[in-house]
Amino acid sequence: MNNWINILNFEIKNQITYPLILKKKNISGSLFVNLSLNTNGEILDLSLNQSSGNKTLDNVALQLIKKITLFPSAGFEAKNKIFNFLIPLNFDLNQNLN
Predict the structure, then answer these.
(1) Rounded to whole angstroms, how far apart are CA atoms 61 and 76?
(2) In a domain? residue 97
(3) Mean of pLDDT values over 71-87
(4) Which of 21, 27, 33, 75 is most deeply buried (CB count within 10 A of its CB)?
(5) How many Cα neighbours within 13 Å face the side chain of 30?
(6) Contacts of 33 (CB under 8 A, 6+ apart)
(7) pTM here?
């Protein structure tokens, strides 16, 4: 399970880039996203847990995660099991996100 979590974190960090629309508007911030997956890596639910305080940033962050259409599978069977994750995202203009 821990290996799967590490793979999911790696996948999210590698696929999420700092959106140009946010850079142009000098928007930065941190937020938390709730992500529910099944063992096949399919997104069952995605929602905002804690807002950045900026609606544009929140919406863009959710859209970026939705673009990851299929996460890596868990590598083990757990029928009808749902795994919930709290994903922290930090969009900082002074750091390279990607």
Answers:
(1) 29
(2) no
(3) 84
(4) 33
(5) 5
(6) 46, 47, 48, 49, 61, 62, 65, 86, 87, 89
(7) 0.82
